[in-house]
Amino acid sequence: MLFVKRTLPLLITFVSGIIMIVAFFSGPALPRIKSLEEIFPQWIQIIMTFTMILGAFSLIRFNFQKIARKQNGWGYSIVLLVGFFGMATLGMVSGSWAKFDPEIKENSTFMCLAENKLTAVEVNIKSIETTKDGGKIITVENKIPDKDGNVFTRKVSTDRLKTPIMSKISILQQVLFEGVFKSAQSTMFALLAFFVASASFRAFRIKSKEAGLLMFSAFIVMLGNVPLGNMVSKLWTWLPFIGKYLDIVVIKEWIISYPSSAAQSAILIGAMLGYISSSLKIIFGVERSHLGGEG
Amino acid sequence: MATEILCVWIGAFITLCCFSFLYKDNPFYRFAESLFVGVSAGYYLSVVYFHQVLKPNLLAKLFPTFFNVGEAAKVAPDYWLIIPGFLGCLMLLRFSQKLAWVSRFTVAFVMGVSTGLTIVTSAQQYLIPQIAKAIKPIFIYGDIGQSISNTVLVVGSIACLFYFFFSTEHRGPVYGNLAKIGIWFLMISFGASFGATVMGRISLLIGRFAFLLHDWLHII
Amino acid sequence: MSVLWRPSRGLFFLFIMALCLVSTVALYAQSEVMPVQNPTVTESVTSENSAEINNIKNAENKLDSKESNLSEKALSEGAEAMASSEDSIESLNSDSNKAPKIPQKPYYFESSRSSTLAVILVLLIFVAYYTFQAQRGREMFIRRISGLSAIEDAVGRATEMGRGVLYVPGIMDMDDIQTIAGVTILGHVARKTAEYDTDLYSPMTRSFVMSVAQEVVKQAYMEKGRIDAYRPDRINYLTDDQFGYVAGVGGIMMRDKPAACFYLGTFYAESLILAETGNSIGAIQIAGTAEPSQIPFFVAACDYTLIGEELFAASAYLSKNPREVGSLKGQDMVKIVIIAAIVFGTILVTLSKTPVGERLGFATAATTFMEFLK
Fold first, then answer.
1. pLDDT per position as a tens digit, C289-322
2. Residues C139-152 pLDDT 10s
3. Which of A134, B160, C43, C282 has its CA 20 to 30 A from that of C26?
4. Domain ranges within chain A, ordered by starting residue
5. Chain-chain contact of B40 with A181 (C-beta, under 8 angstroms)
6. Which of B37, B129, B137 sits opposite C247 (nearest CB)?
7. Are C251 and B111 an interchain contact pair (Cβ–Cβ within 8 Å)?
């Protein structure tokens, strides 16, 4: 049993790792092996997708427990679960289900989603064109004229044509996506501006020679990225002898292209050695903690 | 139109809730955080993992008649995909206390493929090009400026590599000094990266304020 | 030797043999299969166009003479000759295009990737040699890495303060080596938290990483005989979204106020949000990543930062496992080889840029060397 539990997984790691290396170096004369270079990474994508069920279960259980035990902040767990189930259900239903989607025929009536997918209007299908890649371009006409009595005709893709119920589901999903997901995502990203300011304050307190160098290069690069840098450079041209060499933008470019680039190369070389060495250790079973214990 | 307005108002509320994090943890942030985590997890589960990965790459190829229509539905199933499907299912045995160890085979396969791929790609795409990047002529006849710049690049790369030595202390006249120069170069590089990022981050903040003041309040 | 030791050595020899065999077969097969396009075509091109080639040579000679004599006449002659030779090349190409093309036979070994194979083999040989040396009992030294030495202190501090430890193994999946390194270090941290009976929180952004991390932490608690203290619900999944995750972790940090925060793995823009939030709650912070763009933020906001390769050295440093320490020594030796290659290459390209070097053939050598590194 120890063989099955310990040695067999090590062998699987070893064999699959070697296959990937051999596939990488094999030429077109070995098409089957060569194709594994693309097939195996696709397979691990699929495998990792299955674990999402474990993740979802973990999220649900964790929050249900909080609610059941009425732990501090259990109300927020309800919000989280409502958001999760709401989005998961809407996302699952509003996606394409080829088997159940109604066939789009000429002269039939559909709801056409706007480009931002937040509104929909009733349209008639005027004509259907098939593109070279097998896709369809549908010409539709608004069923109800607008305020001025105009009837719009436009070309849309099939994913924007929905049944009345599905269009409502899609709009609801889009409201959650744009209103909550996208807004929160952009705001969290924007918060970085404040954090960069506080981190700069901390980094620029010169405590050592090294911190001074960090501050100096950060200052030059920041200055070189804004118009103020050009103004400072112009001021310095008044200095005798060295003034003309003190162009902030040129100095910034030089710092990025030479000393900074040298350090980045060394970091990457070191990191890649670490990558390869760690990978070799895993393939040869030297590092095996990811497989867990004996049980 | 009503849904568009609703969307902007929800977006503005969530934006303000998230900004309140800068003050301290508060019920508004907690509400937005919980909703954000829930909605994003739901989105990844349904839209990204199911509709964008699992369905086109596994289900539609294994059961074409059920997940496709027209010509695509007539394509023969790709039975090789049973293997990743099976290995994926093995991961679900983690729910069982007794059979959890079986999922080790899946982990082993994923680790093998990932590490095998990492070895070759990191050597080919990063390691070798970075070595090549560090090689420059340190004396160019008639161009002192370029010669100095190239010397800085070569010396900097070597000195930084010395910093990453683990099997000896950062001491001694040669090694100690080279490692110290390496630290200087690293600090200059960190400063440059830091400085280059600041403006980008500020523009993100401006974008968010533009949403609040333009799309929501219509002030600007 | 323990039973668990054997497979690695066996697998290694198997691998070396397989690699040698594959390389030999591939190179042999390549030399057999790849040759030389159609000899008749080559011959005909050679014979038919020898005159044109001579023209080109003449033109080149004339251009050379232009350089030496600086004579305008020679320049114009050379230019004319070059122009005619260019026409000749065009005609030569068009002739060869008209010739029946015989498809090149497929080959077994991708020779354009031979430099990659050479680099991997060099690394493998050094790492394997020093790993075996260390295994045989040869003492190997690792310098002090302050960020790693501080791990125990950080967990100790959290214990003293009666607060927990937060561990973030990056935001990428298990196919990323930095994540694997992060999860491995999580095992070491978990041993410490088990030993000190400190709460360990590790919210995850990827469910696959979560399931592996749960196994690793469980194993660590078992090793320390504290399986009763293992809490799988504290190694929980949050969301796959980068900023959704950071919002969740930020909230956890603000509320639970862990005394020690570890960020070890792949990080992108969220690095600074995590590090600054950790800073604001007064936690001792240890970070490590190989993402060059994020290291500055960790350096600015954390107490200790593992830069690039130091992240991968952590496992060897913390476990003191001879095999891992040996592999680290092997990596250092490869670095010496790389430094030697940089010095050699620099000398070569510098010489190739001098008039003497060009005459002595350094230009060709430098081009060949740089081609190898492409």
1. 999 999 999 999 999 999 999 999 998 999 888 9
2. 889 999 999 999 99
3. C43
4. 2-71, 98-172, 209-289
5. yes
6. B37
7. no
From chain A, the residues in CB contact with B38 under 8 A are: 79-87
What are the pLDDT digits (tens) for B78-130? 999 999 999 999 999 999 989 999 999 999 999 999 999 999 999 999 999 99
With b meaning 16 or more CB within 10 Å and e meaning fewer, what string describes C172-206?
bbbbbbbbbbbbbbbbbbbbbbbbbebbbbbbbbb
Is the pLDDT confidence value at C163 over 60? yes
Tell me how far the alpha carbon of residue A275 is from its chain's centroid: 23
H runs (alpha helix) in C136-241: 146-161, 177-196, 207-223
Alpha carbon distances (Å) from C316 to C122, C169, C265, C327: 21, 17, 16, 8
Contact C222 A293 (CB under 8 A): yes
Q: Which CATH class name applies to A98-172?
A: mainly beta
Contacts of C249 in chain B (CB under 8 A): none
Mean pLDDT of C34-42: 37
- List CB contacts of B202: < 8 A, sequence separation 6 or more: A193, A196
- The Cα–Cα gap between A268 and A256 comes to 16
pLDDT for C96 beyond 60: no
Rounded to the nearest 10 degrees, how much is the dihedral formed by the CA atoms of A221, A227, A228, A234?
A: 100
Residues of A in contact with B164 (CB under 8 A): 266, 270
Task: Tell if the CB–CB gap between A289 and C110 is shorter than 8 Å.
Answer: no
Q: ipTM value, please give it.
A: 0.94
Cβ separation A25–C187 shorter than 8 A: no
- Please tell me the predicted confidence (pLDDT) of residue C2: 38
Task: Take residue B76 and report the two structure tokens written for it.
Answer: 């023969």
Taking only residues 54 to 73 of chain B, the set having a beta carbon closer than 8 angstroms to any beta carbon of chain A reads: 54-55, 57-58, 66-69, 71, 73
pTM of the model: 0.87
Which residue of chain B comes nearest to A73, CA vs CA?
A: B30
B137/C353 CB distance under 8 A: yes
Report pLDDT for C362: 87
Neighbours of chain A (3+ CB pairs under 8 A): B, C
**Degrees (nearest 5) of the Cα angle A193, A195, A198?**
115
Q: Is the pLDDT of residue A47 over 70?
A: yes
- Please report, for residues A94, C156, C163, C286, the alpha-carbon distance to residue C197 in angstroms, rounded to integers and kept in the order given: 48, 10, 11, 20
- Pick from C180, C186, C235, C317 the residue to mutate for testing the A interface (most A CBs within 10 Å): C180
Q: Does B131 touch chain A (CB under 8 A)?
A: yes
Percentage of chain C modeled with pLDDT above 70: 72
Per-residue pLDDT tens for A255-275? 999 999 999 999 999 999 999
d(CA C151, CA C142): 16
A interface mutation test: which of C177, C246, C273, C289 has the most A CBs within 10 A?
C177
Confidence of residue C353 (pLDDT cuts 50, 70, 90): confident
Whole-number average pLDDT of chain C: 80
CATH number for C143-312: choose from 3.40.50, 1.10.8, 3.40.190, 2.30.130: 3.40.50
Residues of chain C positioned with their CB less than 8 A from the CB of A188: 243, 246-247, 270, 273
B46, amino acid identity? S
pLDDT in tens, C172-184: 999 999 999 999 9
Which residue from A minimizes the CA distance to B166? A270
**Domain residues of chain C, as ranges?**
117-127+327-373, 143-312
